[in-house]
From TrEMBL:
This is Arginine--tRNA ligase. A motif ('HIGH' region) lies at residues 120-130. Belongs to the class-I aminoacyl-tRNA synthetase family. It catalyses: tRNA(Arg) + L-arginine + ATP = L-arginyl-tRNA(Arg) + AMP + diphosphate. It is an enzyme of class 6 (ligase). Pfam families: Arg_tRNA_synt_N (PF03485), DALR_1 (PF05746), tRNA-synt_1d (PF00750). Its EC number is 6.1.1.19. Keywords: Aminoacyl-tRNA synthetase, ATP-binding, Coiled coil, Cytoplasm, Ligase, Nucleotide-binding, Protein biosynthesis. CDD domains: Anticodon_Ia_Arg (cd07956), ArgRS_core (cd00671). It comes from Litoribacillus peritrichatus. The gene is argS. One of its GO terms (molecular function) is ligase activity. Residues 387-418 form a coiled coil. NCBIfam families: argS.
Amino acid sequence: MNLRNFLDQSFSKALVAAGAPEGTSGMVRPSAKANFGDYQSNGVMPVAKKLGMNPRDFAQKVIDQVELDGIADKLEIAGPGFINITLNPQWVAEQLSAFDDRCGAEKQNPQTIAVDYSAPNVAKEMHVGHLRSTIIGDAVVRVLEFLGHKVVRCNHIGDWGTQFGMLIAHLEELMRDNPDVMQSELSDLEEFYRESKQKYDSDEAFALRARGYVVKLQGGDPWCNDMWRKLVDVTMDQNQKTYDRLNVTLSKDNTMGESMYNDMLPGVVEELKAKGLAEESEGAMVVFLDEFKNKDGERMGVIIQKKDGGFLYTTTDIACAKYRHEQLNADRVLYFIDSRQAQHLQQAWTILRKAEVIPEAMSLEHHAFGMMLGKDGRPFKTRSGGVVKLSDLLDESKERAAALIEEKSTELTEEQKQAVIDAVSIGAVKYADLSKNRTTDYIFEWDNMLSFEGNTAPYLQYAYTRVASVFRKAEVDMTSFEGEVAISEAAERTLAIKLMQFSEIVDSVAKEGTPHVLCSYLYELSGNFMTFYEACPINKDGVAEDVRASRLALSKLVANTLKTGLDLLGIKVVDRM
Ligand code: ARG
């Protein structure tokens, strides 16, 4: 159950019963401090002010109306009219005892949600910007599916554009020398791209051929199309290796690149023309938007078709959103794209809205993120200033994790060690990204992300092994164990309420697209468990059988929640490390 929503609804009802207008929000939040209770309703003050009543008097009326018998132990008016809510531990214990492997999370009203993420470019190495989109997008996808939504993973790869002329011309030359080049030499895509560009810039005959191929490719020439397809496939084969290594749920079936919308583009331009939005300007088709001003304060023109007939990135995104409405029937579209493309998206959407290409109710959301920076606070690059290849990054993570585990986990078998190294090295890189509020830039630092202390993957993975070891010591099988939760100690109470909050946390990740909220939650949960474990003995002599059973039950709930939560983040757990 989403406890916060439940309390919010209870208070909303009570506010209305006490005289507030229909639909007044209870404004319930978890309390910031323990002495303010577990939750707080802040809905009284704004209403009391409007009704011209003393807020504390009105708060009392609300308390008289609210129906939380047996659920809340104490409702207290604080300060100018806050209501502090202290939950009844007995009720909390009953709720927890009924938890199954969903850890209290409920399915939501199912929606169709298209998630646009990863989106690398063909014949280019996936760079760190795509890493952020891939990791954050995939976590949100997992959360949405967990909550029962129909998710369409859209990998909007950059697989179209005039650059394909030179790429095809270059590939043609390489294949002439070595027919098997696709298998062997194309492992370095950056290099391939650079060479193509170099030839294009320096060799007139090559450039001419390249430009010819662009025209042929656009005209549907089978040979050019075949060469293009080779380039797409070799790129996506390489990316798939990265996805698999990263434990990201994308597969080839999810590739919905820019080229997919090619056939729609002329129609989109026609439609915008017919609706009086697009007009000819200096030979190009342009949509002028009052909503966007250039630096001279003039309204901005968005080109949707160039003078030479070519279409643009924006035209594709307009067509693509239309497709997601007409073909996918999407209720929401979530775009995980770096913040530098904010204006691009806003322009495409403004045009879509003005032209009523998609219904009002369809939600288009840019879940933007900042850049990944190096230790020096500058964009993350190799020492020589090149893009950091993801495969190199993951290799380094593995090496570092191996050194760490070698030193720390001396009692593991070789096989166990390998599992730990895998889980930790991938988990650390992903978690470092996921745990930061995605809107800001973040500094990529090996030492922090691979530390067993602080808000890191290894810390959470370690917390999980601690729970597992409690069960090993108790000689109880965790999976089959069942026990009633009963709460008496303060540390049990704190832990129990935290466990109750998993549901509202995943709901908020689904709504806002912010996995860092789940990370902070899991980190706090682990902290609460450590405190509980210190304060409430389980495997010591003299602990009563029912107390021990309850503590084991709480521990199992912690393990389940950690495992489920980390799984939603695409991070694995191990039983020992
Ligand atoms: N391929 C693009 C890039 O590398 C990202 C595409 C994002 N998705 C979209 N619908 N525009 O910048």
